Amino acid sequence: MTDIGKNIFIGTAGWSYKDWYGIVYPENPDKGFKTLDFIANFFDTVEINSTFYAPANSFMGNRWVSKVAHNDRFQFTAKLWQRFTHDRTEFNSEDVRKYLDGIDPIALSGRLGAILCQFPWSFKNCDENRKWISKIINGFNDYPLVFELRHRSWDRNETYEFLDRMGVGIVAIDQPVIGESIEFKPLRTGNIGYVRLHGRNYEKWFSTGQSGNGKKSDPSARYDYLYSEEEIREIAEKVMIVSKESEKTFVIQNNHPWGQAVANASQLKAALGESDIRVPETMFKRFPELKKIAKL
């Protein structure tokens, strides 16, 4: 499906967004329309984000696998349940098993690329948190793990050497660099490369979730960003560095509002040398620049 390199998988963080209808998806699709089936026609991976909020069950895991059956190359990545990364209260083997109930069907199908352990900016490098990371690694030691560590205190050789020894990946993050946020460095540990592109919306990145009139603002506003073609070319160069010695490299666009992740993921494929790029026709109205790279 792609000629950018067998070990690079490009896709989006999630696929179920209301604001994608009429842009990525048809405005009024027929009853048989399935969003994941559709996305798997254009990309070779997606990051499952619903597993962050609650574990999936085995039925759902099998459903996801069935929906991408038409793309032999397709790989899923999945966010780890927030129970482990944000709540951080003591967990046991039953908590691990509860999460893996929906992941195992994907793993058994050979379609699990990685489990993403995404920690908040407030998770800083200290003895307690290093022990927590070790506990997660031990709890999920039979599964491919990657860690997203957003605070700059983790940007130490010791961090990367430890993760590499443990055979787990580090996420190279593109995010607004504010205060002690970690910068975008093309790093890889373990066998899996993972690049996560959040956008560069500096104004909304640390939004409190309240709008000026006291009402709750849209939490996805921080990801409302469209990368320029120049920025995409710069990112492509870093992706190539990450992918050089990795068995697989996943590049996930998380700037999802209004289909921007789909547009930029398509452009990134072009920047990496893809020559057979399919783009949903509905995208051209909002992103006419995609006509330059799309197979029409």
Give a verbal description of the structure.
- The chain is an alpha/beta fold and 296 residues long.
- The protein has one domain: TIM Barrel.
- Helices cover 31% and strands 15% of the residues.
- It has helices at residues 35-39, 50-53, 58-67, 82-87, 93-108, 127-139, 157-166, 229-243, 260-271, and strands at residues 8-13, 45-48, 75-79, 112-118, 145-148, 169-174, 192-197, 248-253.
- Strands 1-2-3-4-5-6-7-8 form an eight-stranded parallel beta barrel, surrounded by four helices.
- Strand 7 (192-197), helix 8 and strand 8 form a beta-alpha-beta unit.
- Helix 3 runs parallel beside helix 5 and helix 8 crosses helix 9.
- It starts with 7 loop residues before the first strand and ends in a 25-residue tail after the last helix.
- The relative contact order is 0.15.
**CATH topology assignment:** TIM Barrel
**The CATH H-level homologous superfamily:** Protein of unknown function UPF0759
SSE succession: EHEHHEHHEHEHEEHEH
- Strand-pairing-aware structural class: alpha/beta
Multimer state: single chain
Q: How many runs of DSSP E, i.e. beta strands?
A: 8
SSE layout:
Layout: E1 8-13, H1 35-39, E2 45-48, H2 50-53, H3 58-67, E3 75-79, H4 82-87, H5 93-108, E4 112-118, H6 127-139, E5 145-148, H7 157-166, E6 169-174, E7 192-197, H8 229-243, E8 248-253, H9 260-271
Parallel strand pairs: 1-2, 1-8, 2-3, 3-4, 4-5, 5-6, 6-7, 7-8
Helix pairs in contact: 3-5, 8-9
